[in-house]
Specification:
Shape: elongated
Distance between the termini: 55 Å
Largest sheet: none
Order of helices and strands: HHH
Radius of gyration: 21 Å
Helix content: over 70%
Number of strands: 0
Number of domains: 1
Number of helices: 3
Structural class: mainly alpha
């Protein structure tokens, strides 16, 4: 069951949202819901990646910076 959530937005954000809604033929609410879904998915991925990194650190599965530096420098493209 959906729950109504009210938020305050600056007029410029409403204008941008309305312009996008007009351009895409979607409702304002759909765009906001999609943006929230995308944000929540990204944050979940970030939290999982941090958790994996901390687990690797705790288990000693790390490479010291000084050992990785030559590999990183070799990957850099000449400017």
């Amino acid at each position: 069951m959906a729950v109504l959530l009210q938020i305050e937005l600056e007029p410029a954000k409403i204008d941008a949202l309305d312009a996008l809604a007009t351009h895409t033929g979607r409702r304002r609410e759909e765009l906001v819901a999609q943006a929230l879904d995308d944000f929540l998915a990204l944050e979940k991925q970030n939290i999982e990646a941090i958790r994996e990194g901390l687990d690797d650190l705790a288990a000693g599965r790390i490479v010291p910076h000084k050992d990785m530096l030559p590999t990183i420098q070799a990957m850099r493209r000449p400017v």
